[in-house]
TrEMBL record:
<feature type="region of interest" description="Disordered">
    <location>
        <begin position="1"/>
        <end position="74"/>
    </location>
</feature>
<feature type="region of interest" description="Disordered">
    <location>
        <begin position="102"/>
        <end position="131"/>
    </location>
</feature>
<feature type="domain" description="Phosducin">
    <location>
        <begin position="55"/>
        <end position="290"/>
    </location>
</feature>
<dbReference type="Pfam" id="PF02114">
    <property type="entry name" value="Phosducin"/>
</dbReference>
<protein>
    <recommendedName>
        <fullName>Phosducin domain-containing protein</fullName>
    </recommendedName>
</protein>
<dbReference type="InterPro" id="IPR023196">
    <property type="entry name" value="Phosducin_N_dom_sf"/>
</dbReference>
<dbReference type="InterPro" id="IPR051499">
    <property type="entry name" value="Phosducin-like_reg"/>
</dbReference>
<keyword id="KW-0597">Phosphoprotein</keyword>
<dbReference type="InterPro" id="IPR001200">
    <property type="entry name" value="Phosducin"/>
</dbReference>
<feature type="compositionally biased region" description="Basic residues">
    <location>
        <begin position="116"/>
        <end position="126"/>
    </location>
</feature>
<dbReference type="GO" id="GO:0008277">
    <property type="term" value="P:regulation of G protein-coupled receptor signaling pathway"/>
</dbReference>
<comment type="similarity">
    <text>Belongs to the phosducin family.</text>
</comment>
<feature type="compositionally biased region" description="Basic and acidic residues">
    <location>
        <begin position="1"/>
        <end position="14"/>
    </location>
</feature>
<dbReference type="InterPro" id="IPR024253">
    <property type="entry name" value="Phosducin_thioredoxin-like_dom"/>
</dbReference>
<dbReference type="InterPro" id="IPR036249">
    <property type="entry name" value="Thioredoxin-like_sf"/>
</dbReference>
<feature type="compositionally biased region" description="Basic and acidic residues">
    <location>
        <begin position="104"/>
        <end position="115"/>
    </location>
</feature>
Length: 307
């Protein structure tokens, strides 16, 4: 442990001289001289030159997996390019030889083709006439087929119409179950008209007479019925304000529902023609003025046969 005096005067090593230290310095100098002598006596060996740097030659020097793959890809690319160049040169050579080396048979074939073309141009003046005749024949055949198709469709419509039942009168329904049978048990293509009426109202009586007039023109496939509103237990409000009402069914489904028809015609004095026009406008009766003549004649013939 150092004392205050040692710190003020310095360490002993700073001012104390020893004979051992001088001997050690002497020995160190002798060792340095011996090493210098041996170094001078040993021959100088030159340092090996640095390895030459490999210049880039278009391929990698890496011998790992990535380098091998890259070299293989480059090889295949060069091989493909060389093959394409060879094929292009072959095509050029083939074209050149084919232009210069035409055989006699090919020349004769070319001459015959030219002669055929000339003959075709000579006959081209008559060609439009022939084409027009062919077109006319085709149109005539199509017109004949179209007429046949129309007649066939008309005949199908007539046969379907002839299968419908004929009524020709207004049917009075007297109960609710009878009303249901008249609607649900009828043919699916028959249109059923049911007039809900009140005997005490003038408009209801007028509509009943109009329906009787319609039965003469629409006897087949159209069923006209009347039903007293009191029979089906309708409400007093409907009996007072809802009649005359006309319910229209087809295939058991309600397809038309008209109430207070007196207000629709704006008076109690309307005719069968007014009712027919009203039902035609709403699509519940067909317009007989638009019926084709072929159907009218067939219907008349069918009516006379049934009589």
């Amino acid at each position: 442990m150092t004392t205050l005096d040692d710190r003020l005067l310095g360490e002993k090593t700073h001012y104390y001289c020893s004979s051992e230290d001088e001997d050690e310095r002497e020995r160190g100098k002798d060792d340095d001289e011996d090493e210098g002598a041996t170094a001078a006596a040993a021959p100088e060996v030159p340092e090996p030159p640095p390895p030459p740097s490999n210049a880039w030659r278009g391929m990698t020097t890496n011998t790992g997996p990535k380098g091998v793959i890259k070299d293989w890809q480059r090889f295949k690319q060069l091989e493909t390019e060389k093959r394409e160049e060879q094929e292009a040169e072959k095509l050029k050579l083939i074209q050149k030889l084919s232009l210069n080396c035409a055989s006699e048979s090919e020349k004769e074939k070319q001459k015959t083709e030219k002669e055929k073309k000339k003959r075709g141009w000579g006959r081209s003046k008559k060609k439009p006439v022939d084409e027009d005749e062919d077109i006319d024949k085709i149109l005539e055949e199509e017109d004949g087929f179209f007429d046949f198709y129309v007649k066939q469709r008309m005949q199908e419509m007539i046969s379907r119409y002839e299968c419908l039942p004929v009524f020709g009168e207004v049917l009075e329904l007297k109960s609710g179950p009878e009303f249901l049978r008249a609607v649900d048990d009828e043919h699916k293509d028959v249109t059923v008209f049911v007039h809900l009426y009140d005997p005490g109202k003038r408009a209801c009586a007028v509509l009943n007479n109009c329906l009787k007039g319609l039965t003469s023109n629409y006897s087949r496939g159209f069923k006209f019925c009347t039903l007293d509103v009191r029979v089906v237990n309708m409400t007093e409000i409907f009996q007072a304000q809802g009649v005359p009402a006309l319910l229209i069914y087809r295939g058991g489904n309600l397809v038309g529902n008209f109430v207070r028809l007196g207000d629709e015609f704006k008076s109690d004095h309307f005719s069968a023609a007014d009712v027919m026009k009203f039902l035609i406008e709403h699509g519940h009766l067909p317009d007989q003025s638009l019926t084709p003549k072929i159907i009218k004649s067939s219907l008349k013939k069918a009516g006379s046969d049934s009589d």
